[in-house]
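Technical annex, item 7. During the second reporting period the consortium partners agreed on a shared format for inverse folding records so that results from different sites could be compared directly. Each record opens with the tokenized structure and is followed by the designed sequence. A conforming record, contributed by the partner at site C, is shown below for reference.
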């Protein structure tokens, strides 16, 4: 398995254009939120409902992702736990209003359109076309950039 630094270095190769970087810092969290929202709306078995109102396909997916993040970097894992928790709370609230699926689908389409525009500016294909694991690396790259803007090196 590649190290955290190896993943970050490889992801950085196709994310150097200033506008593409900005787009990713906005669109990647929106895509993560929208995927969580879409998965939240997929019908779940009664056994899930009996355990917790938060146990659904999104929490199962994020739980698996968190195992991967823990193996890569503890700080990133903890950061993703916190950000996922916030997204879960927002999804739960929106689900109660009946707007979660429509909002999530809209965000998903618009954020991906932005991503592809950013890569057009970059002149390089998105990393996930080379390896689907990069879909899990994008959020870590954004978090790392956030930490760097605060003067924290991860």
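Designed sequence (site C submission):
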């Amino acid at each position: 398995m590649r190290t955290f630094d190896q993943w970050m270095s490889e992801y950085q190769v196709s994310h150097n254009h200033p506008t593409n970087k900005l787009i990713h810092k906005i669109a990647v969290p929106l895509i993560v939120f929208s995927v969580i929202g879409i998965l939240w709306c997929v019908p779940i078995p009664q056994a899930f409902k009996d355990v917790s109102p938060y146990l659904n396909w999104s929490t199962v997916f994020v739980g698996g992702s968190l195992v991967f993040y823990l193996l890569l970097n503890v700080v990133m894992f903890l950061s993703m736990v916190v950000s996922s928790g916030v997204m879960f709370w927002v999804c739960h609230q929106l689900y109660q209003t009946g707007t979660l699926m429509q909002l999530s689908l809209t965000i998903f389409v618009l954020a991906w359109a932005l991503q592809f525009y950013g890569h057009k500016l970059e002149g390089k294909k998105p990393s996930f076309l080379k390896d689907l694991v990069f879909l899990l690396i994008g959020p870590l790259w954004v978090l790392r950039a956030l930490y760097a803007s605060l003067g924290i090196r991860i």
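The chain has a mean pLDDT of 95. The radius of gyration is 16 Å. All partners now use this format for quarterly exchanges.
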